[in-house]
Amino acid sequence: MCPNNPVLTHHISSQFNEELQDVNTKFMSMGGLVEQQVANAIHALLEMDATMSVDVQFKDNAVNQLEREIDEALTLILARRHPAAIDLRMVIAMSKANTDLERIGDEAAKIARIAQSLSEEGGSPRGYMETRHIGNQVRIMIHDALDAFARLDAEQALRVLHADADIDREYQSATRTLMTYMMEDPRQITRVINVLWVLRSLERVGDHARNISEQVIYMVKGFDARHTRIEEIEQKVQR
Amino acid sequence: MCPNNPVLTHHISSQFNEELQDVNTKFMSMGGLVEQQVANAIHALLEMDATMSVDVQFKDNAVNQLEREIDEALTLILARRHPAAIDLRMVIAMSKANTDLERIGDEAAKIARIAQSLSEEGGSPRGYMETRHIGNQVRIMIHDALDAFARLDAEQALRVLHADADIDREYQSATRTLMTYMMEDPRQITRVINVLWVLRSLERVGDHARNISEQVIYMVKGFDARHTRIEEIEQKVQR
Protein backbone atom coordinates (compact mmCIF):
# COMPACT_ATOMS: atom_id res chain seq x y z
CA MET A 1 0.00 0.00 0.00
CA CYS A 2 1.40 3.37 -1.16
CA PRO A 3 5.11 2.39 -1.26
CA ASN A 4 6.06 5.90 -2.41
CA ASN A 5 4.50 7.69 0.51
CA PRO A 6 7.49 9.55 1.98
CA VAL A 7 5.87 10.03 5.38
CA LEU A 8 5.73 6.31 5.89
CA THR A 9 9.38 5.55 5.30
CA HIS A 10 11.43 8.24 7.05
CA HIS A 11 11.22 7.22 10.70
CA ILE A 12 14.18 6.21 12.76
CA SER A 13 12.01 3.89 14.84
CA SER A 14 10.89 0.99 12.67
CA GLN A 15 8.18 0.27 15.22
CA PHE A 16 6.69 3.74 14.67
CA ASN A 17 6.95 3.20 10.92
CA GLU A 18 5.06 -0.03 11.20
CA GLU A 19 2.30 1.46 13.33
CA LEU A 20 1.81 4.37 10.95
CA GLN A 21 1.85 1.96 7.98
CA ASP A 22 -0.74 -0.26 9.62
CA VAL A 23 -3.20 2.50 10.35
CA ASN A 24 -2.65 3.96 6.90
CA THR A 25 -3.41 0.60 5.31
CA LYS A 26 -6.57 0.31 7.39
CA PHE A 27 -7.61 3.84 6.44
CA MET A 28 -7.18 3.01 2.76
CA SER A 29 -9.21 -0.21 3.10
CA MET A 30 -11.95 1.76 4.78
CA GLY A 31 -11.82 4.26 1.92
CA GLY A 32 -12.12 1.46 -0.63
CA LEU A 33 -15.03 -0.03 1.30
CA VAL A 34 -17.07 3.18 1.49
CA GLU A 35 -16.39 3.92 -2.16
CA GLN A 36 -17.83 0.47 -2.94
CA GLN A 37 -20.76 1.07 -0.58
CA VAL A 38 -21.72 4.24 -2.44
CA ALA A 39 -21.39 2.46 -5.80
CA ASN A 40 -23.51 -0.46 -4.59
CA ALA A 41 -26.17 1.78 -3.05
CA ILE A 42 -26.58 3.65 -6.33
CA HIS A 43 -26.64 0.38 -8.25
CA ALA A 44 -29.29 -1.00 -5.89
CA LEU A 45 -31.42 2.09 -6.48
CA LEU A 46 -31.05 2.23 -10.26
CA GLU A 47 -31.52 -1.51 -10.81
CA MET A 48 -34.13 -1.92 -8.04
CA ASP A 49 -31.90 -4.59 -6.56
CA ALA A 50 -33.41 -5.21 -3.10
CA THR A 51 -30.80 -7.84 -2.16
CA MET A 52 -27.97 -5.44 -2.77
CA SER A 53 -29.72 -2.66 -0.85
CA VAL A 54 -29.98 -4.96 2.18
CA ASP A 55 -26.33 -5.93 1.77
CA VAL A 56 -25.17 -2.28 1.81
CA GLN A 57 -27.12 -1.59 4.99
CA PHE A 58 -25.60 -4.66 6.61
CA LYS A 59 -22.04 -3.80 5.57
CA ASP A 60 -22.31 -0.38 7.22
CA ASN A 61 -21.38 -2.25 10.42
CA ALA A 62 -17.99 -3.07 8.92
CA VAL A 63 -17.46 0.62 8.10
CA ASN A 64 -18.35 1.58 11.68
CA GLN A 65 -15.99 -1.03 13.07
CA LEU A 66 -13.13 0.29 10.93
CA GLU A 67 -13.82 3.84 12.12
CA ARG A 68 -13.38 2.71 15.73
CA GLU A 69 -10.24 0.69 15.00
CA ILE A 70 -8.59 3.54 13.10
CA ASP A 71 -9.30 6.08 15.84
CA GLU A 72 -8.02 3.67 18.46
CA ALA A 73 -4.78 3.10 16.52
CA LEU A 74 -4.30 6.85 16.05
CA THR A 75 -4.81 7.49 19.77
CA LEU A 76 -2.18 4.87 20.60
CA ILE A 77 0.28 6.51 18.21
CA LEU A 78 -0.34 9.90 19.83
CA ALA A 79 0.06 8.45 23.31
CA ARG A 80 3.22 6.42 22.63
CA ARG A 81 5.05 8.07 19.76
CA HIS A 82 4.44 11.81 20.22
CA PRO A 83 4.54 12.45 16.47
CA ALA A 84 5.69 15.88 15.29
CA ALA A 85 5.54 17.96 12.09
CA ILE A 86 4.14 16.05 9.09
CA ASP A 87 3.70 12.86 11.14
CA LEU A 88 1.43 14.74 13.54
CA ARG A 89 -0.43 16.37 10.66
CA MET A 90 -0.95 12.94 9.09
CA VAL A 91 -2.40 11.57 12.33
CA ILE A 92 -4.72 14.58 12.70
CA ALA A 93 -5.74 14.52 9.03
CA MET A 94 -6.50 10.80 9.23
CA SER A 95 -8.55 11.29 12.39
CA LYS A 96 -10.67 13.98 10.70
CA ALA A 97 -10.92 12.12 7.38
CA ASN A 98 -11.90 8.95 9.24
CA THR A 99 -15.04 10.73 10.46
CA ASP A 100 -15.82 11.82 6.90
CA LEU A 101 -15.42 8.27 5.57
CA GLU A 102 -17.79 6.96 8.22
CA ARG A 103 -20.35 9.65 7.31
CA ILE A 104 -20.06 8.70 3.63
CA GLY A 105 -20.83 5.16 4.75
CA ASP A 106 -23.92 6.48 6.59
CA GLU A 107 -25.12 8.24 3.46
CA ALA A 108 -24.62 5.05 1.43
CA ALA A 109 -26.71 3.15 3.98
CA LYS A 110 -29.43 5.84 3.80
CA ILE A 111 -29.49 5.59 0.00
CA ALA A 112 -29.72 1.80 0.29
CA ARG A 113 -32.70 2.08 2.69
CA ILE A 114 -34.47 4.34 0.20
CA ALA A 115 -33.54 1.97 -2.65
CA GLN A 116 -35.15 -0.86 -0.71
CA SER A 117 -38.42 0.97 -0.09
CA LEU A 118 -38.52 2.34 -3.64
CA SER A 119 -38.04 -1.12 -5.10
CA GLU A 120 -40.99 -2.32 -3.00
CA GLU A 121 -43.11 0.53 -4.39
CA GLY A 122 -42.06 -0.16 -8.00
CA GLY A 123 -39.53 2.65 -8.37
CA SER A 124 -39.74 6.37 -9.02
CA PRO A 125 -41.09 7.81 -12.29
CA ARG A 126 -38.24 10.33 -12.48
CA GLY A 127 -34.81 11.23 -11.22
CA TYR A 128 -32.75 8.18 -12.23
CA MET A 129 -30.73 10.00 -14.85
CA GLU A 130 -29.77 12.69 -12.33
CA THR A 131 -28.95 10.08 -9.68
CA ARG A 132 -26.74 8.13 -12.08
CA HIS A 133 -24.91 11.24 -13.21
CA ILE A 134 -24.31 12.85 -9.80
CA GLY A 135 -23.65 9.41 -8.29
CA ASN A 136 -20.86 8.72 -10.79
CA GLN A 137 -19.28 12.08 -10.11
CA VAL A 138 -19.22 11.73 -6.33
CA ARG A 139 -17.77 8.22 -6.63
CA ILE A 140 -14.93 9.67 -8.66
CA MET A 141 -14.50 12.41 -6.03
CA ILE A 142 -14.15 9.85 -3.22
CA HIS A 143 -11.66 7.88 -5.30
CA ASP A 144 -9.60 10.95 -6.18
CA ALA A 145 -9.62 12.26 -2.60
CA LEU A 146 -8.32 8.92 -1.30
CA ASP A 147 -5.74 8.72 -4.05
CA ALA A 148 -4.57 12.24 -3.15
CA PHE A 149 -4.33 11.12 0.49
CA ALA A 150 -2.30 8.03 -0.40
CA ARG A 151 0.11 9.93 -2.65
CA LEU A 152 0.21 13.16 -0.58
CA ASP A 153 -0.88 14.98 -3.72
CA ALA A 154 -2.19 18.47 -2.91
CA GLU A 155 -2.81 19.31 -6.58
CA GLN A 156 -5.10 16.32 -6.95
CA ALA A 157 -6.87 17.35 -3.72
CA LEU A 158 -7.43 20.75 -5.28
CA ARG A 159 -9.11 19.15 -8.27
CA VAL A 160 -11.58 17.46 -5.90
CA LEU A 161 -12.46 20.88 -4.45
CA HIS A 162 -13.26 22.08 -7.96
CA ALA A 163 -15.38 18.99 -8.64
CA ASP A 164 -17.40 19.65 -5.48
CA ALA A 165 -18.36 23.09 -6.75
CA ASP A 166 -19.71 21.42 -9.95
CA ILE A 167 -21.69 18.88 -7.92
CA ASP A 168 -23.36 21.63 -5.89
CA ARG A 169 -24.57 23.33 -9.09
CA GLU A 170 -25.84 20.08 -10.61
CA TYR A 171 -27.58 19.14 -7.39
CA GLN A 172 -29.44 22.48 -7.36
CA SER A 173 -30.50 22.00 -10.96
CA ALA A 174 -31.67 18.40 -10.45
CA THR A 175 -33.67 19.46 -7.38
CA ARG A 176 -35.49 22.14 -9.36
CA THR A 177 -36.33 19.67 -12.15
CA LEU A 178 -37.79 17.15 -9.70
CA MET A 179 -39.79 19.78 -7.83
CA THR A 180 -41.36 20.94 -11.11
CA TYR A 181 -42.23 17.35 -11.93
CA MET A 182 -43.90 16.86 -8.53
CA MET A 183 -46.10 19.88 -9.12
CA GLU A 184 -47.14 18.46 -12.48
CA ASP A 185 -47.95 15.01 -11.09
CA PRO A 186 -48.67 15.20 -7.35
CA ARG A 187 -49.63 11.52 -7.11
CA GLN A 188 -45.92 10.75 -7.43
CA ILE A 189 -44.80 13.04 -4.62
CA THR A 190 -43.79 10.34 -2.13
CA ARG A 191 -41.66 8.44 -4.62
CA VAL A 192 -40.02 11.51 -6.14
CA ILE A 193 -39.21 12.91 -2.70
CA ASN A 194 -37.33 9.68 -2.04
CA VAL A 195 -35.13 10.46 -5.03
CA LEU A 196 -34.67 14.01 -3.72
CA TRP A 197 -33.34 12.55 -0.45
CA VAL A 198 -30.94 10.38 -2.44
CA LEU A 199 -29.63 13.39 -4.36
CA ARG A 200 -29.22 15.26 -1.07
CA SER A 201 -27.21 12.32 0.30
CA LEU A 202 -25.00 12.29 -2.79
CA GLU A 203 -24.40 16.02 -2.44
CA ARG A 204 -23.36 15.37 1.19
CA VAL A 205 -20.98 12.62 -0.01
CA GLY A 206 -19.39 15.22 -2.28
CA ASP A 207 -18.96 17.54 0.71
CA HIS A 208 -17.22 14.78 2.67
CA ALA A 209 -14.86 14.05 -0.26
CA ARG A 210 -14.06 17.78 -0.26
CA ASN A 211 -13.39 17.68 3.49
CA ILE A 212 -10.97 14.77 3.02
CA SER A 213 -9.20 16.72 0.28
CA GLU A 214 -8.87 19.73 2.56
CA GLN A 215 -7.19 17.43 5.08
CA VAL A 216 -4.76 16.27 2.37
CA ILE A 217 -3.82 19.90 1.71
CA TYR A 218 -3.36 20.48 5.45
CA MET A 219 -1.23 17.35 5.78
CA VAL A 220 1.01 18.12 2.80
CA LYS A 221 1.21 21.91 2.88
CA GLY A 222 0.65 22.58 6.57
CA PHE A 223 -2.14 25.12 6.17
CA ASP A 224 -5.80 24.87 7.08
CA ALA A 225 -7.72 25.02 3.78
CA ARG A 226 -11.19 24.94 5.36
CA HIS A 227 -13.52 27.89 4.79
CA THR A 228 -11.08 29.40 2.32
CA ARG A 229 -11.79 30.67 -1.19
CA ILE A 230 -10.60 28.16 -3.79
CA GLU A 231 -8.42 30.78 -5.56
CA GLU A 232 -6.56 31.40 -2.32
CA ILE A 233 -6.03 27.66 -1.75
CA GLU A 234 -4.83 27.35 -5.35
CA GLN A 235 -2.19 30.04 -4.85
CA LYS A 236 -0.89 28.41 -1.69
CA VAL A 237 -0.87 24.88 -3.11
CA GLN A 238 0.90 25.88 -6.30
CA ARG A 239 3.46 28.08 -4.57
CA MET B 1 -15.49 28.79 32.80
CA CYS B 2 -16.03 25.38 34.42
CA PRO B 3 -13.95 25.94 37.60
CA ASN B 4 -14.82 22.45 38.79
CA ASN B 5 -13.47 20.64 35.76
CA PRO B 6 -10.91 18.29 37.33
CA VAL B 7 -9.01 17.77 34.08
CA LEU B 8 -8.16 21.43 33.93
CA THR B 9 -6.58 21.77 37.36
CA HIS B 10 -4.38 18.72 37.94
CA HIS B 11 -1.32 19.49 35.82
CA ILE B 12 2.12 20.00 37.21
CA SER B 13 2.99 22.44 34.43
CA SER B 14 0.94 25.59 34.88
CA GLN B 15 1.68 26.48 31.26
CA PHE B 16 -0.01 23.27 30.10
CA ASN B 17 -2.96 24.03 32.41
CA GLU B 18 -3.31 27.45 30.89
CA GLU B 19 -3.22 26.17 27.31
CA LEU B 20 -5.84 23.52 28.02
CA GLN B 21 -7.97 26.11 29.86
CA ASP B 22 -7.74 28.53 26.95
CA VAL B 23 -8.81 26.04 24.31
CA ASN B 24 -11.57 24.76 26.57
CA THR B 25 -12.86 28.31 27.05
CA LYS B 26 -12.81 28.85 23.30
CA PHE B 27 -14.61 25.55 22.72
CA MET B 28 -17.34 26.57 25.16
CA SER B 29 -17.73 29.99 23.50
CA MET B 30 -18.07 28.28 20.15
CA GLY B 31 -20.70 25.99 21.66
CA GLY B 32 -22.62 28.97 23.01
CA LEU B 33 -22.40 30.68 19.64
CA VAL B 34 -23.74 27.75 17.60
CA GLU B 35 -26.52 27.19 20.15
CA GLN B 36 -27.51 30.83 19.61
CA GLN B 37 -27.20 30.45 15.84
CA VAL B 38 -29.68 27.56 15.84
CA ALA B 39 -32.07 29.52 18.10
CA ASN B 40 -31.84 32.59 15.86
CA ALA B 41 -32.28 30.61 12.65
CA ILE B 42 -35.47 29.03 14.00
CA HIS B 43 -36.68 32.42 15.24
CA ALA B 44 -35.98 33.93 11.80
CA LEU B 45 -38.02 31.19 10.15
CA LEU B 46 -40.97 31.26 12.54
CA GLU B 47 -41.21 35.05 12.70
CA MET B 48 -40.26 35.60 9.04
CA ASP B 49 -37.49 37.88 10.25
CA ALA B 50 -35.36 38.45 7.14
CA THR B 51 -32.82 40.65 8.96
CA MET B 52 -32.10 37.95 11.49
CA SER B 53 -31.80 35.30 8.79
CA VAL B 54 -29.13 37.40 7.06
CA ASP B 55 -27.38 37.93 10.38
CA VAL B 56 -27.19 34.16 11.08
CA GLN B 57 -25.67 33.51 7.65
CA PHE B 58 -23.10 36.24 8.24
CA LYS B 59 -22.17 35.01 11.71
CA ASP B 60 -21.36 31.55 10.34
CA ASN B 61 -17.98 33.07 9.48
CA ALA B 62 -17.28 33.55 13.18
CA VAL B 63 -18.14 29.88 13.81
CA ASN B 64 -15.77 28.80 11.04
CA GLN B 65 -13.00 31.00 12.42
CA LEU B 66 -13.41 29.48 15.89
CA GLU B 67 -13.23 25.97 14.42
CA ARG B 68 -9.84 26.77 12.88
CA GLU B 69 -8.50 28.42 16.03
CA ILE B 70 -9.55 25.52 18.26
CA ASP B 71 -7.97 22.91 15.98
CA GLU B 72 -4.81 24.96 15.77
CA ALA B 73 -4.59 25.23 19.56
CA LEU B 74 -5.21 21.49 19.96
CA THR B 75 -2.47 20.66 17.45
CA LEU B 76 -0.01 22.87 19.37
CA ILE B 77 -0.91 21.10 22.61
CA LEU B 78 -0.31 17.70 20.97
CA ALA B 79 3.00 18.84 19.49
CA ARG B 80 4.39 20.50 22.63
CA ARG B 81 2.78 18.83 25.61
CA HIS B 82 2.35 15.18 24.60
CA PRO B 83 -0.80 14.79 26.70
CA ALA B 84 -1.60 11.33 28.06
CA ALA B 85 -4.61 9.52 29.55
CA ILE B 86 -7.61 11.78 30.19
CA ASP B 87 -5.74 14.85 28.89
CA LEU B 88 -5.22 13.14 25.56
CA ARG B 89 -8.81 11.95 25.49
CA MET B 90 -9.97 15.52 26.16
CA VAL B 91 -7.89 16.84 23.25
CA ILE B 92 -9.20 14.13 20.91
CA ALA B 93 -12.81 14.57 22.09
CA MET B 94 -12.57 18.33 21.61
CA SER B 95 -11.11 17.90 18.13
CA LYS B 96 -14.01 15.63 17.10
CA ALA B 97 -16.67 17.72 18.86
CA ASN B 98 -15.25 20.86 17.25
CA THR B 99 -16.15 19.42 13.84
CA ASP B 100 -19.68 18.68 15.08
CA LEU B 101 -20.12 22.23 16.39
CA GLU B 102 -19.03 23.65 13.06
CA ARG B 103 -21.50 21.38 11.23
CA ILE B 104 -24.29 22.53 13.57
CA GLY B 105 -23.31 26.05 12.56
CA ASP B 106 -23.62 25.02 8.89
CA GLU B 107 -27.11 23.63 9.49
CA ALA B 108 -28.13 26.87 11.24
CA ALA B 109 -26.89 28.84 8.23
CA LYS B 110 -28.86 26.53 5.89
CA ILE B 111 -32.03 27.06 7.95
CA ALA B 112 -31.41 30.81 7.86
CA ARG B 113 -31.09 30.75 4.05
CA ILE B 114 -34.39 28.91 3.79
CA ALA B 115 -35.97 31.34 6.29
CA GLN B 116 -34.86 34.19 4.08
CA SER B 117 -36.34 32.76 0.89
CA LEU B 118 -39.53 31.66 2.67
CA SER B 119 -40.04 35.13 4.12
CA GLU B 120 -39.74 36.55 0.58
CA GLU B 121 -42.40 34.08 -0.62
CA GLY B 122 -44.76 34.88 2.27
CA GLY B 123 -44.03 31.80 4.41
CA SER B 124 -45.18 28.19 4.34
CA PRO B 125 -48.80 27.15 4.91
CA ARG B 126 -47.70 24.31 7.21
CA GLY B 127 -44.89 22.91 9.31
CA TYR B 128 -44.27 25.73 11.79
CA MET B 129 -45.59 23.86 14.80
CA GLU B 130 -43.30 20.89 14.01
CA THR B 131 -40.33 23.19 13.41
CA ARG B 132 -40.89 25.01 16.71
CA HIS B 133 -41.23 21.78 18.63
CA ILE B 134 -38.27 19.88 17.16
CA GLY B 135 -36.23 23.09 17.11
CA ASN B 136 -36.70 23.59 20.83
CA GLN B 137 -35.72 20.03 21.54
CA VAL B 138 -32.50 20.10 19.55
CA ARG B 139 -31.52 23.41 21.16
CA ILE B 140 -31.85 21.75 24.54
CA MET B 141 -29.79 18.82 23.25
CA ILE B 142 -26.93 21.11 22.17
CA HIS B 143 -27.07 22.88 25.52
CA ASP B 144 -27.08 19.63 27.51
CA ALA B 145 -24.28 18.10 25.43
CA LEU B 146 -22.07 21.15 26.02
CA ASP B 147 -22.94 21.19 29.69
CA ALA B 148 -22.01 17.50 29.92
CA PHE B 149 -18.71 18.32 28.21
CA ALA B 150 -17.95 21.19 30.60
CA ARG B 151 -18.79 19.16 33.70
CA LEU B 152 -17.40 15.82 32.44
CA ASP B 153 -20.85 14.37 33.12
CA ALA B 154 -21.31 11.03 31.36
CA GLU B 155 -24.81 10.52 32.79
CA GLN B 156 -25.97 13.79 31.29
CA ALA B 157 -24.37 12.79 27.98
CA LEU B 158 -26.40 9.60 28.14
CA ARG B 159 -29.60 11.62 28.50
CA VAL B 160 -28.74 13.42 25.26
CA LEU B 161 -28.45 10.05 23.48
CA HIS B 162 -31.95 9.20 24.68
CA ALA B 163 -33.27 12.58 23.51
CA ASP B 164 -31.81 11.96 20.04
CA ALA B 165 -33.83 8.77 19.70
CA ASP B 166 -36.99 10.82 20.45
CA ILE B 167 -36.07 13.44 17.86
CA ASP B 168 -35.62 10.81 15.18
CA ARG B 169 -39.15 9.49 15.82
CA GLU B 170 -40.69 12.96 15.82
CA TYR B 171 -38.84 13.89 12.65
CA GLN B 172 -40.25 10.83 10.86
CA SER B 173 -43.76 11.68 12.01
CA ALA B 174 -43.49 15.37 11.00
CA THR B 175 -42.17 14.35 7.57
CA ARG B 176 -45.15 12.07 6.97
CA THR B 177 -47.60 14.82 7.96
CA LEU B 178 -46.04 17.32 5.57
CA MET B 179 -45.90 14.84 2.69
CA THR B 180 -49.61 14.13 3.12
CA TYR B 181 -50.31 17.85 3.09
CA MET B 182 -48.33 18.31 -0.13
CA MET B 183 -50.39 15.65 -1.85
CA GLU B 184 -53.57 17.42 -0.75
CA ASP B 185 -52.40 20.82 -1.97
CA PRO B 186 -49.69 20.46 -4.64
CA ARG B 187 -49.55 24.23 -5.29
CA GLN B 188 -47.72 24.55 -1.98
CA ILE B 189 -45.05 21.93 -2.74
CA THR B 190 -42.11 24.31 -3.09
CA ARG B 191 -42.79 26.08 0.18
CA VAL B 192 -43.57 22.96 2.17
CA ILE B 193 -40.43 21.23 0.85
CA ASN B 194 -38.46 24.13 2.27
CA VAL B 195 -39.85 23.29 5.69
CA LEU B 196 -38.97 19.62 5.10
CA TRP B 197 -35.34 20.68 4.50
CA VAL B 198 -35.44 22.66 7.76
CA LEU B 199 -36.70 19.65 9.69
CA ARG B 200 -33.98 17.54 8.10
CA SER B 201 -31.38 20.09 9.21
CA LEU B 202 -32.74 20.04 12.75
CA GLU B 203 -32.60 16.27 12.79
CA ARG B 204 -28.94 16.52 11.73
CA VAL B 205 -28.31 19.00 14.54
CA GLY B 206 -29.66 16.40 16.94
CA ASP B 207 -27.23 13.85 15.48
CA HIS B 208 -24.32 16.22 16.04
CA ALA B 209 -25.39 16.83 19.66
CA ARG B 210 -25.44 13.05 20.08
CA ASN B 211 -21.93 12.81 18.57
CA ILE B 212 -20.66 15.41 21.04
CA SER B 213 -22.23 13.44 23.89
CA GLU B 214 -20.53 10.26 22.68
CA GLN B 215 -17.23 12.15 22.85
CA VAL B 216 -18.03 13.17 26.44
CA ILE B 217 -18.54 9.51 27.35
CA TYR B 218 -15.26 8.63 25.62
CA MET B 219 -13.43 11.42 27.45
CA VAL B 220 -14.79 10.58 30.89
CA LYS B 221 -15.10 6.80 30.75
CA GLY B 222 -12.42 5.97 28.18
CA PHE B 223 -14.57 3.83 25.94
CA ASP B 224 -15.75 4.48 22.41
CA ALA B 225 -19.55 4.81 22.61
CA ARG B 226 -20.10 5.23 18.88
CA HIS B 227 -22.20 2.64 17.03
CA THR B 228 -23.15 1.01 20.31
CA ARG B 229 -26.62 0.08 21.56
CA ILE B 230 -27.82 2.58 24.15
CA GLU B 231 -28.45 -0.16 26.75
CA GLU B 232 -24.81 -1.24 26.48
CA ILE B 233 -23.59 2.35 26.88
CA GLU B 234 -25.90 2.75 29.86
CA GLN B 235 -24.40 -0.28 31.59
CA LYS B 236 -20.86 0.94 31.05
CA VAL B 237 -21.57 4.52 32.12
CA GLN B 238 -23.41 3.53 35.28
CA ARG B 239 -20.88 0.92 36.30
Question: How would you sum up this structure, described in words?
Answer:
Two copies of one chain form a homodimer. Chain A is an all-alpha fold and 239 residues long. Chain A has a single domain (13-238), classed as Methane Monooxygenase Hydroxylase, Chain G, domain 1, CATH 1.20.58. Helix content of chain A is 83%, strand content 0%. The first copy, chain A, has helices at residues 14-46, 50-81, 85-121, 128-151, 154-184, 189-221, 230-238. Chains A and B meet through helix 2, helix 3, helix 5 and helix 6 of A and helix 2, helix 3, helix 5 and helix 6 of B. Chains A, B: Belongs to the PhoU family. Chains A, B: One of its GO terms (biological process) is intracellular phosphate ion homeostasis.
Ordered list of secondary-structure elements with their pairings:
The structure is a homodimer of 239-residue chains.
Chain A: H1 14-46, H2 50-81, H3 85-121, H4 128-151, H5 154-184, H6 189-221, H7 230-238
Summarize the structure.
Chain A is built from seven helices and no strands. Chain A has 239 residues and is mostly helical.
Task: Classify the oligomer.
Answer: homodimer
Count of extended strands of chain A: 0
Class based on secondary structure composition and strand pairing of chain A: mainly alpha
Give the C-level CATH assignment of chain A.
Answer: Mainly Alpha
Shape of chain A: globular
How much helical structure, as a percent, in the residues of chain A? over 70%
Query: Can you tell me the number of structural domains of chain A?
Result: 1
What can be said about the biggest beta sheet of chain A? none
Number of helices of chain A: 7
β content of chain A, as a range?
under 5%
CATH architecture label name of chain A: Up-down Bundle
Order of helices and strands of chain A: HHHHHHH
The most extensive interface, with participating residues per chain, is: A-B, 31 and 31 residues
User: What integer value in Å does the Rg of chain A equal?
Assistant: 19 Å
| CATH-assigned homologous superfamily of chain A | Phosphate transport system protein phou homolog 2, domain 2
